[in-house]
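Newbie here. two chains, one complex. Structure please?
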Amino acid sequence: MSNASELDALFGGSPVAGMGNSDRSAGLIASDGGARVADESDLPRAWQVLEQVMDPEVPVVSVVDLGIIREVSWADGHLQVAVTPTYSGCPATELIETEVSRALERAGFRAPRLERRLAPAWTTDWISEQGRERLRVYGIAPPAGSTSKRSLLGEKDEICCPHCGSHETEVVSQFGSTACKALYRCRSCLEPFDYFKCI
Amino acid sequence: MTDNKNDLIEYLLRLADNAMINGQRLCEWCGHAPALEEEMALMNVALDLVGQARNWYEYAAELLADGRDADRLAFTRDERDFRNTLLVEQPNGDYAVTTAKLFLFDAWHLHTLQALTASKDERIAAIAAKGVKEATYHLRRSGEWVERLGDGTEESRQRMLAAIDELWRFTGDLLAGDAIQQRLAEAGIAADAAAVAAAWQATVEQVFGATNLPVPQPSSYFYLDGKKGLHTEHLGILLAEMQFLQRAYPGATW
């Protein structure tokens, strides 16, 4: 697949955290770890750290790209991070929380406090433009349109093949390998592909 | 206030047990579904339900404050303590029975969760708002399958008719309210049972009507009551399998 070189371009040719690496956050976090204990002035740096924590099931998209980091703040000498689950039964929820904590601790944020925040419920509208592009390059069609527009107009969005860009695609199943994906097939290049459902 | 809290715990356990038992039943199809896509769909739906169950159990556990967590509530309570509706504990049968069971439940579930998004209890509203997105595509899927089987071959139609005949008697238990739910509904916390039943009826008539499946008369009195822990003989067997590990090795983790 030619996607590998595109991935390199997106990530500046550096090794991608989480790709073929059991300790996902190690590569990028270790370099800026240092011995200094973080304080309130490091909030922007906390966001940078979180941008390197990848989704365990789609390891090219960061938790920030996914829009599941709802708030990063400082209180009582601790960093506070509000994380929202994508689906009620997402089995990666605990793993993501563990990886977020570990990455922050490595970067000098002592005992960060994580809050699992349910409301407002996560929507694919919160996936960043960069996240959508990374999904596409990875071979997963990003969610088409927005949930609010869909509910207002009830219109059908066009799902583009992430491999050849064709609009000639068809749904195979509304359910795929993980809760967030549906299975599609491209009628032009005949390749099957995952579609990140719009919810 | 104490009464209100006990009511709330009871209501949360009903929501939790409905999702949990339904999810556990669906998992029995793992490795047996008629097509790979169907198997993935059923397991996805089951996963959503188990996740929702955990959200309800966690809230119930916090209110109970007796040291039990969500796992303990799911895996160490006895059959008589389960508050799920009789419909979801019924065996899967053939694919028409599984489909009809899911559809009748999904329609009730979606309308219930929609009502709960407006609950004055913020935690309930948040869990419901998350669940509504999932229940929406659950109902879309099961409704499409009811139409496909009801309007497919003569064989599939006969099987769907038989499935409805077999399951319809449990819909009274599904739709019935009681004093606990009534008190919570009046306080703006729970869904109003009569309103949910009316919306459920409309959804069932719409989907059955699309494929000329007759809608039976409302189900009448049934001698069992899931809300009181009076279950059919199928629940105990389901729990024996679901709870085996925690019963044999209490507190086991992995």
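Moderator note: The first strand of chain A starts at residue 69 and ends at 75. The radius of gyration of chain A is 18 Å. Thread marked as resolved.
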